[in-house]
């Protein structure tokens, strides 16, 4: 885990289509790793169920 890279805060909503469970992920904020450990979390929305996931951001691919 990179200490410089911001992380995304994601809320997952599970639903079912034709008997198959799927999850819709919504970005609700950003988390900045602290040099002392832990994160500084800034949410722009609050998850309905009170749960969210913090995942390291993936590098964007260049499109030409």
Please provide a written account of the structure:
With 64 residues, this protein is mainly beta. 0% of the residues lie in helices and 53% in strands. The chain has no helices and 4 strands. It is globular.
Concise description?
0% of the residues lie in helices and 53% in strands. It is mostly beta strands and 64 residues long. The protein has a four-stranded antiparallel β-sheet with strand order 3-2-1-4, with no helix packed on it.
Topology:
Blueprint (H helix, E strand, L loop, with lengths): L6 E11 L2 E14 L5 E5 L9 E4 L8
Antiparallel strand pairs: 1-2, 1-4, 2-3
Class from secondary-structure proportions: mainly beta
Summed over residues and divided by their number, the pLDDT gives a mean of 89
Radius of gyration: 14 Å
Number of H- or I-type helical stretches = 0
Query: Span between N and C termini?
Result: 29 Å
What form results from the Cα inertia axes? Answer: globular
Q: What's the arrangement of strands in the largest beta sheet?
A: 3-2-1-4
Q: Could you describe the largest sheet, including whether it forms a barrel?
A: 4 strands, antiparallel
